[in-house]
Amino acid sequence: xxxxxxxxxxxxxxxxxxxxxxxxxxxxxxxxxxxxxxxxxxxxxxxxxxxxxxxxxxxxxxxxxxxxxxxxxxxxxxxxxxxxxxxxxxxxxxxxxxxxxxxxxxxxxxxxxxxxxxxxxxxxxxxxxxxxxxxxxxxxxxxxxxxxxxxxxxxxxxxxxxxxxxxxxxxxxxxxxxxxxxxxxxxxxxxxxxxxxxxxxxxxxxxxxxxxxxxxxxxxxxxxxxxxxxxxxxxxxxxxxxxxxxxxxxxxxxxxxxxxxxxxxxxxxxxxxxxxxxxxxxxxxxxxxxxxxxxxxxxxxxxxxxxxxxxxxxxxxxxxxxxxxxxxxxxxxxxxxxxxxxxxxxxxxxxxxxxxxxxxxxxxxxxxxxxxxxxxxxxxxxxxxxxxxxxxxxxxxxxxxxxxxxxxxxxxxxxxxxxxxxxxxxxxxxxxxx
Amino acid sequence: xxxxxxxxxxxxxxxxxxxxxxxxxxxxxxxxxxxxxxxxxxxxxxxxxxxxxxxxxxxxxxxxxxxxxxxxxxxxxxxxxxxxxxxxxxxxxxxxxxxxxxxxxxxxxxxxxxxxxxxxxxxxxxxxxxxxxxxxxxxxxxxxxxxxxxxxxxxxxxxxxxxxxxxxxxxxxxxxxxxxxxxxxxxxxxxxxxxxxxxxxxxxxxxxxxxxxxxxxxxxxxxxxxxxxxxxxxxxxxxxxxxxxxxxxxxxxxxxxxxxxxxxxxxxxxxxxxxxxxxxxxxxxxxxxxxxxxxxxxxxxxxxxxxxxxxxxxxxxxxx
Lengths: 434, 320
Fold this sequence. Notes:
The structure holds two protein chains of two kinds. Chain A has 16 helices and four strands. Chain A is mainly alpha-helical. In chain B, α7 (223-231) crosses α10 (305-319). The A-B interface holds A 2-4, 6-7, 9-11, 13-14, 17-18, 21-22, 269-271, 273-281 and B 54, 57-59, 79-80, 82-83, 85, 87, 89, 91, 93-95, 97-98, 102, 105-115.
């Protein structure tokens, strides 16, 4: 039994020594992702892109005040580039990337509305990125809502002002009704009742009108407002949101690359021939390699996490032991993928290419920047075959939502890891025996 | 090939054949290796030496025939059996980014050698004269040093039987001689060595030599026996002042202990193949005196093994 552990230790020591013999590599592995995350945070400020906007109106003076008000209210998303009277000129500026947005105000919009028709605002852009297109559509929608709101508010204010004269007329009508009720003979019960009802109706109408006039026009136009809050109570920055995903992707890629090169290099060097005739087994070899890389990468993950917490101020809201558990199972499963690549690859180049393909697949399918809930059903199977998908979900839950590792997610990745270990063991056994 | 089987043979094969598709790499190989001996397996590149070693170590399974290594079929080796074997692969397969010591330590671990092994590893480094280079990375070693490190790694678990596949290939003659000194020391320690080489001259260092050619074992013999088998007996060179006439050469060929034709080297010197040189030389001396031939030198010749090997191949070609 002792020999079993001695033989396992051979790879544990060997792999560790080989890795730690490359201090520059370790430094790159630790500082590289940290620098990337820092640059990422610096590169993307936590605010929306401001769009340079050119307005087109045949009679600019008629809308000057509204435009000033509007661009002031939306200064974070709209950079006013003035008003053009020629639509084609504005569109050519758009084509030359001199402006981001052209908003064409229709001719005589108020007349169109009075004719019981909607006045259409035309918004032009020159974007190809679907996300940017979506952003502009949202901005346009907000813009038109704002215009509608302002018009409604103006109309409401006018209505409130107009209702002032109506109210004084009502007061007169109420007084006259009271006089009428008193003039009616008490014996004429029917007439008395009708006069009393008329007086009550007029009084109610007067009170309603008072309420209408006393309400702020802004509240009348926008009676509901919205306030959104996350359960964690923290508003995450771009860096904060992407930190768990970057850590997962990095750890997965490191594990896969290290493991992918490990066995294929030994196969190429010829030492596998020696293993095959020596008393070491495929199981001992594999366990030794798993342990060595796990140990190294756990240390690496600890350093990266520490830097993220202390320098980038990324929080871990959930239990630390859950974070550790998630990282370890992610590394274990990723190593399984790496060893599988190593066992099916013929050359180093092939192993690196497979690793890069997997990284690419992970970026697109793991939910790294596109939410998995947007993905079509059959393709989600591919997503859930990647360790990164589970890793991102686990780390986001633990770090950002402050919850524990979801049991089903943990069981899923653990199952993949165990299956991969068995497959790798079988393939290595076959390689060492054939 | 007739084998002198004994209970002390650590390797025995019978009609061992290994084919790769239509290519027959080793054909009907029958041989034996006695315990405690150095067995030289000699032949040109591509003749099947490495395939034979791979069959004997269990790396390959034979196509047909039987084999026994340390009393077992290598295919049925237990971990314990595998631990009794050391295998030096032709190329350097250890890790270039590990030091000499780390490589040796790694080899010791995967053979399951006890963690209290520092003394043994130091002894091995002394043995292969790499003690001063223990902290050097393997990639910084010369070719000869790498071979010595590989040899040390092969012996790290103190195996009974060592298979050394061309351990002296590509290294200078001085180091080659040094290697053979190591091998002799290992033999003295009780190890059995199965060594392949394409340097025919190294046959002289072996106790027993097998000659391989195109996948077939042409013969097994001691180095001297190899010479004798190659030439059909001992070679005696006779140098006379006057030189031998045609009739005199015919008389020599007619002597009962002389085989074949007398080979004329030059006007004064002739080579004669005899049964036993020690017995034949006095009789030949007497014959020369009777013929009034003034003998300048008469002695047993040891043809270089290169010539012996060529002679064996030529004889084999004639038989074919």
